[in-house]
Design brief:
This protein is an alpha+beta fold. Helices cover 25% and strands 30% of the residues. The chain contains six helices and ten strands. The strands form three sheets. It has a six-stranded antiparallel sheet with strand order 4-5-6-9-8-7. Helix 1 packs across helix 3 and helix 2 crosses helix 3. The radius of gyration is 22 Å and the shape is elongated. It starts with 12 loop residues before the first helix and ends in an 18-residue tail after the last strand.
């Protein structure tokens, strides 16, 4: 990429530089590639390092770049589509589910979860922990709460703990007839445990997707999934793989 003169541009220098860098990421760099250091980039574009940092920080917020300790600034993989408007209703773990089981335990859920599940305040439920990966990086973590009544034939003998236990709970859920589901999305801040799992600092922006699954006239399971806001985007309808240009001045394809 050649040097671009920025002196006569009326918009903030860092904003124009962000646009130039974004176009370069599309045309000259591949996912995971490490960018030149700040000194070299600043000299190449004829800007102060403070201006360059502003542009890089904005691109990081938009999910185009990732700053990794001990590695540097790398080109981020495409955002993961989080389907919130799809008409397809399926149980977690069914079909082409991209989540990976991590663990499962029986524990008393938070009061708000117990209220949704209509379980007793001190009644343990199966708590399945799952994670979602993209390009070798964890981009989301999920807690799936399943009352014992939803998986009555589950036995501790077959799968006492760990990922095997989680898979067993998911298999048992498939025996119920899914009557529907609803989903809510909100912007939140990463709690300490989620931040550690997602390699973010506590308080980093996240998307929290809460899904209720209905069977036999009740809430049979509740999913609370936390997505890295810098690596995910919401999709509506049944085409989550639509490509969108990151540059807001260009049209979507």
């Amino acid at each position: 990429m050649g040097t671009t003169q920025l002196e006569s541009v009326p918009e903030p220098k860092y904003w124009h530089l962000k646009t130039v860098l974004s176009e370069a990421l599309d045309s000259e760099f591949s996912v995971g590639e490490i960018l030149p250091n700040e000194r070299d980039l600043a000299a190449r574009f004829g800007v102060a390092r403070a201006t360059l940092r502003q542009a890089l920080e904005q691109l990081e917020l938009e999910g185009r770049l990732q700053r990794r300790r001990g590695v540097g600034t790398t080109v981020a993989p495409p955002r993961v589509g989080v389907a919130v408007g799809t008409e397809q209703h399926v149980w977690p773990g069914a079909g082409s589910d991209s989540w990976q089981p991590v663990d499962c335990e029986q524990a008393v859920p938070p009061a708000a979860v117990a209220s949704v599940l209509e379980s007793g305040a001190d009644e343990p439920v199966h708590t399945v922990r799952r994670s979602r990966m993209s390009h070798g990086q964890r981009v989301a973590t999920e807690l799936l709460y399943v009352p014992a009544a939803s998986v009555p034939d589950l036995t501790a003998i077959d799968a006492p703990s760990g990922p095997a236990r989680a898979r067993a709970v998911l298999r048992e859920l498939q025996h119920l007839t899914l009557e529907g589901q609803d989903r809510a999305v909100e912007l939140g801040s990463a709690r300490a445990d989620d931040a550690k799992d997602l390699d973010r600092l506590p308080g980093a922006p996240v998307l929290v997707v809460t899904t209720r699954f209905f069977a036999e006239g009740r809430t049979a399971a509740l999913s609370v999934a936390t997505y890295r806001a810098d690596t995910c985007r919401l999709t509506f309808g049944d085409s989550p793989d639509v490509e969108i240009h990151h540059n807001p001045d260009r049209q979507a394809s």
